[in-house]
Amino acid sequence: MTVTTPNPTPLAEAPPSSGTRLVDRVFRMRELAILAVFLVMIAVTQAGNSEFLSEQGVKDLLLNATILVLVATGQSLVVITRNVDLSVGSTLGITAFAAGDYLHGGGNPVVAVVLAVLLGVGFGLLNGLLVSLGQVPALVVTLGTLYIIRGVDSIWVGSRQITAADLPGGFVDFGSGGISAVPWLALIALAVLAATAYYLKHYGSGRELYALGSNPEAARLAGIPVRKRILAAYTVCGALAGLAGAMYLARFGNVDSGTGNGYELTVVSAVVVGGVAFTGGSGSVYGAALGGLLLTSVNSVLPALGVSSVWVLAINGVLLLLAIAVDRIVALRVAAALKKRSARRRTAPTKENAGA
Amino acid sequence: MTHPPDPGPAPVLALRDVTKSFGAVRALRGVSLELFPGEVHALAGENGAGKSTLIKTLAGVHRPDAGQVLLDGEPVVFHGPGDARDAGIAVIYQEPTLFPDLSIAENIFMGRRPRRALGRIDHKATHAATAALMKRLGVDLDPDRPARGLSIADQQIVEIAKALSFDARVLIMDEPTAALTGSEVARLFGVVRTLREQGAAVLFISHRLEEIFEICQRVTTLRDGARIAGEPLAGMTEDDLVRRMVGRDLDELYPKQDVTPGEVALSVRRLTREGVFTDVSFEVRCGEIVGLAGLVGAGRTEVARAVFGIDRWDAGEVEVDGRRLANGAPSIAMAAGLALVPEDRRAQGLVMDMSIERNIGLTGLRTTVRAGLVDRGAERSRSLDWAVKLQVKYARIADAVSTLSGGNQQKVVLAKWLATGPKVLIVDEPTRGIDVGTKAEVHRLLSQLAADGVAVLMISSDLPEILGMADRVLVMHEGRLTAEIPRSDATEETVMAAATGRAAA
């Protein structure tokens, strides 16, 4: 039965691209919400302590966030594919020491950074191969590599320590320098972040990461090279952890065998607080970066307000649970809205048929 | 064997003597099949006959153990689904395979998006191409909305658009119509005919025989993994086809026994769940099969879920054997003798990775547990007992349910619930996606249960099934019960009129 009469229930109330707009809006809102929380927190702190937003204060805030943002960006790629990399803390620690050891021996800073990144790539490849070929849950595999890398690190480093005095002056200066309040390191992290976000949105292989996190079986049937993509995600994640290791060295100048211990949990928190779904397939690296910024700023805000820093962990935990709760509620609401929209579209012709 | 009766075009895609085994199960035994351009080819066979395996072999998901896949007469080896797609083979699977988080446009063009400079995705072109496809299919779906929340029919539409999007030379459709309404099927067939006229080869699978006769020119029949026949459809009757599929004359498809209804077993009064269904009242008596008909989305499944206690109701009451059930408590409903065989057996009825034995055993844990531990022996014998009673086809009872065919999975769900010895059995789409042979078995089983005094509430979108099996037909329309029709008055017309809201209830 073809319907030729004008449609009595206008779909105009739901304009053509309302579906996207709804979802885009939600994601943008998700990121804006974190930004808002962040800004409110900063404003309150500034009101209580006018020293907080001095040039040095802003710089410290950005520097502290930089390394977390970088590692969280890499972690997001992995989490989007419905996996996780718990070894990033260990990777950061061992690459920082390797770069420091090399520089201590009189090496070139650029080569040191490349070395750290390549070492990170190596560990990323190892994780990626184990996860994609072994068909073993990533949580368990990378828990294993977390301990292995940390173990190797401990054996190799022993009780040695790299201090700023062991490093070339230029390297350390670069680590704390910048254009007025914006550190060089933050600019590098921002560039990496923007490039990753652009890649995820505009390149086929980037979208495929979302696809295989969203429905792994469908991804296989759609001919997506699932193993290759997972391997690539882990490799980039490892590389960024390596780069973060080099930056850690430049920033703090102080590395030993315990560097980066437990860092992976902060990274995963940042990613989740930033709205990257742990079940894969959704979220953005910008969100993860904002999550990182929020978590690190809690670290700076509490001392500035005279609150003991013992509260930091508890507050991070609350933020994490809050983020998950919000995501769950929003997801349910969006799903309901989308279903309703489908239902409205489907019931319209039925009514016409009945009237015809 | 004689040469193909159509000597004109050469087959674009063919299988030659293909054999494929999974463990001890031989899914395909030396099967040959030829798909010609400009022809719709039906693949017929009962569940478990090897149809899905055959499709997955053509689609590059499985590689044959022996035999060859021929593309334009040349042997090829597909290393994965991507290879088959690049060769122009599009597959629409029985279960839609979409990415819920991605937009419809992205779902359609995944892996083959329009590109701009530097290999970037051309989002605009993707959107425009998707909008054009939607227009061609005559549906109003926003290309940018995520696939999450789409109805099964809409998901199927997206799958079809995907196949259309790359002008496939070969289109393979595994039960594309199972979840579609009449008008949607007509539209789909329009598209299939256009593709055929443009020279595509189509392989079509459906359990609805009338559809096979409507759209196909040739049919290949599989039974137990072997090819029984490959022949033109012209001149064949449905009975011929069924005989080839089941290898015997089919007993009556709707073996309804006459019974005298007994006591009221299930009584639902003024049940309401806001925004879902309103003021639903009905009774089911012992020995009775009551059909619940209606269009997809009328609220039938939702009523069943509420009665069983999965969803809470806002008003009304439910009684089983005169005892009121608590709101939202499936365990109490079960204890009162209620059983629900859900619509979606994969997601709701079965634990796919668990063994047949354990799946059937799940509902019996209360009786097979001794001193806090599951008595594995008791569980196994109870499960075996039911698997045999329902003639489930399996290699070993310890095999995962996911290795079974759809019809056999459905039997396992039935076994699981029948093992509880229910007083009231609610079955939701008991034969969806099931072959005729198994369908008749399920019907006989339901009829037998009713004769034994079980009260059966059967939700079905299959009108002949409702008319053939039900003592009484309840019809729902937009969340309300619009008609109650006794068996003698139930016809396609009376039921459809009530289902579309045209009849004064």
From TrEMBL, chain A:
Pfam families per the UniProt record, alphabetical: BPD_transp_2
InterPro entries linked: ABC_transp_permease
Chief location of this protein within or outside the cell: membrane
Record carries keyword Transport: yes
GO cellular component: plasma membrane
Compartments, as annotated in UniProt: Cell membrane
Residue intervals passing through the bilayer: 32-49, 61-79, 110-131, 138-158, 178-200, 230-250, 311-336
MF terms in GO: transmembrane transporter activity
Source species, domain of life: Bacteria
Keywords carried by this UniProt record: Cell inner membrane, Cell membrane, Membrane, Transmembrane, Transmembrane helix, Transport
Membrane-topology descriptor: Multi-pass membrane protein
Chain's role: Part of the ABC transporter complex LsrABCD involved in autoinducer 2 (AI-2) import. Probably responsible for the translocation of the substrate across the membrane.
Quaternary organization: The complex is composed of two ATP-binding proteins (LsrA), two transmembrane proteins (LsrC and LsrD) and a solute-binding protein (LsrB).
Protein name: Autoinducer 2 import system permease protein LsrC
Automatic annotation (TrEMBL), chain B:
Entry-linked Pfam families: ABC_tran
InterPro entries found in the cross-reference section: AAA+_ATPase (IPR003593), ABC_carbohydrate_import_ATPase (IPR050107), ABC_transporter-like_ATP-bd (IPR003439), ABC_transporter-like_CS (IPR017871), P-loop_NTPase (IPR027417)
Signal peptide start and end residues: none
Record-linked SUPFAM superfamilies: P-loop containing nucleoside triphosphate hydrolases
Cellular location(s): Cell membrane
Record CDD domains: ABC_Carb_Monos_I, ABC_Carb_Monos_II
Membrane protein topology class: Peripheral membrane protein
Stretches assigned to the ABC transporter domain: 13-249, 259-503
Keywords on record: ATP-binding, Cell membrane, Membrane, Nucleotide-binding, Repeat, Sugar transport, Translocase, Transport
A cellular component annotation (GO) from this entry: plasma membrane
GO molecular function, one term: ATP hydrolysis activity
Protein name, UniProt field: D-ribose transporter ATP-binding protein
Natural source organism: Streptomyces bungoensis
Organism lineage: Bacteria, Bacillati, Actinomycetota, Actinomycetes, Kitasatosporales
